[in-house]
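dumping the sequnces here before i forget
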Amino acid sequence: MPPLPESVPFTWYLILSAVLFSLGVAGFLFRRNVITVFMSIELMLNAVNLSFVAFSYKFKQPDGHIFSFFVMVVAAAEAAVGLAIILTVFKNRRTLEIDEVSSLKN
Amino acid sequence: MEHVILFLVFAAIAVICAVNLVLQTHPISSALSLVGVMGALALIYLQLGGEFIASAQLIVYAGAIMVLFIFVIMLLNAGTEHKMPRTLWVKYGGLPLLALFIGVAAWVIQRMFPPAPSGLFGNMTHGTPQDIGRLLFQTYLLPFEVTSILILIAILGAVVLARKEIQ
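..and the predicted 3d for all of it:
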C-alpha cells in the first residue's frame, strides 16, 4: 500500500462526487418506491454540490459556494412541490410504486 | 496526514450511507442513510473552507428537507416495497456496469487534473458568511431575488397540489 499523501489530492473530491452521483443514478433506476427515487435525486444534487465546493477551493473563489447555495434553494422548492405531487398521486391511486403509475406510458 | 485520514473517514461514511440508501427497501431507512450522507458531506465542506455552506447543508438539507421527507413517509405510512421480477441482464449486469462507469469516470478525472496537493483545513478562508453575504448581495443579487420568486411559486404550487377538493 502506498503511503498516504500529506494533503488530500484535489481529484479525490471529484472521484467521491462521481461515486455518489453514480449511486444516486443507481437508486433512481433500481428503486420502485417513488419516495426513495426522489431521495436518490437529492443524493445526485448533493454530489454535484461537492464538485462545486471542491472547484471553489481549487480556484480560491467563493463563487462555487454561491452556486451550491442556489442548488440547495432549488432543491428545497423541488422537494416541496414533488412531495405535494406524491401526496396527490397517493390520494388518487392509493399506491407509491412507480410502475403502477403509468397512464402517460405509450 | 491527519487531513487525509479525516477525509477518508468522512468519504467512507458518505459512500457507505449512499450504498445503504440504494439497498434498503424501507423508505425510512433510506431517509436516515441520506441524513448520514449529508452530515458527512457537511464535514467535507468544512475541510474545503466552506463554513457557510457546511452550516447551510446541515440546516437546510439535513434539517428542513429531510424532515419534509420523513413527514410524507409517515403521513402515507409507506411500507417496504414489493419485490418485482427483474430481467436477467439487469440483475447480473447492472452492478458490474455501474462499477465500470465509476472506474472510467475516476480514470478520466485522474487524467484531466494533474495530482496537485490540496485539501488542508484552513487553506481557504473565502467561505465565511461575510464573504458569501457580500457576494450574494452584490454580484449575485438578481439571481438571489429570482430564487425568492421561485420559492413563492413553489409554495403556491405545493398548497394548490396538496389541498382538499371542495365539492
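The mean pLDDT of chain B is 86.
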